[in-house]
Structure formats: structure tokens, C-alpha cells
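Supplementary Methods S3. Complex input for the magnesium ion-bound model.
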Amino acid sequence: MKKINIILDIDNTLVKTIKKVKNPKSTIYQDGVYYEIYPGCLQFLRYVAKLMNNYLIFFSNGTKQRNDDLIKELLTRAFNKKSVKFEIYSRADHCFSPITKNLTIIVPKDQLNRTILIDDDPYIIENSQKKNMIVINNETRRNLYHITGLIKFSYELYENNYHPNFVEIINLIDGYIESKQIYEEGKLQLSRV
Ligand SMILES: [Mg+2]
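Predicted complex, serialized as C-alpha cells:
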């Protein structure tokens, strides 16, 4: 399996804060805050962990304590008792002020061509790394299912040596394949993990 790095934002990417609990089963309560887990999120985490050889990387502007607690709970729900390795980069680890995410904090520069950040904030990433970011918007169809489909199509091409640069492939697919097709493929994929 060819190695890629998929780095995940937390807020509005995997979960969102809510005022009123609609579905207790998909809600996490932490330190006075309710978080709703987005549809498909637990399966998505299992899918990404599989691609990354049982590993997950999170990169969030939240505080270390909040991120640690939230991710621990999220992973318990996604993986039950099975163990998964992970790292979390929090507010204090962000490189530039105030909050720009620089992926070279996490991966060596020569791995940038196979490193993708999934984040809902299109302006959060270092300017020179814009291509390394795939924007998610869970309130639209560009949600976790869509992102899964996008990763799946791109990874297949990458594994089959279509192009040596994973980031180029995923950007190409993003602009090329019909988003409906990507969405359906992602849904199908997540129903299997
Ligand atoms: Mg976010």
C-alpha cells in the first residue's frame, strides 16, 4: 500500500457544536459543550485509518485539553476497543500567528506531495500549501461522503501509478469527476467500513 497522509481538522469537519441536542446517540458532551458528530464520521475515521495503516492525524485550533478529550471520545465510538494510533496537533502547535496551519510542522517537506488536509476553513492553510487542502462543507453535499469518494478515486489512481503526485491527482479529480458520482461512491465506500 502506498503511503499518504490525510490530516483532519475537527470542528465543522468531523463534529459541530450545537445548542440543542437532537440525537443523543450522535452527540458528545464535553466541558459544558455539546458536539454533534456528522453523519458518516465514525465510518470515515475507520476508512482513513485503514488507508493510513491504522493511524490518524488531527490538526485543530482547539486547545490541547479539549482536543484530547474530544478525540478520545470520538475514537472510542469509532473503533470501540480496537486500538488505533493517532497524533493531535492543537492551537499551541500552529506555526504562524494567529492560526495558519502549516503542514510541514507535521510531515517532512518531501512528503507534501502526498499530504492532504481536510478542513472547512478555506483560508486556514499556509498560502504555499493551498493545493494540499481539500475544503469540506458538511452543510452541503460536499460533506464526509463526498470527501470519501474523492479520496477513494484519487487513491486508486495513485496506487496504480497514474501520477506520482497524490496532491495533483486529488485536485484533478476534484475538478473533473461529477460530484454526484463522487458522493455516491463515498457513500458506498463508507457503508463497507
Ligand atoms: Mg474547522
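The mean pLDDT is 94. The helical segments are 41-51, 64-79, 144-159, 166-176, 179-190.
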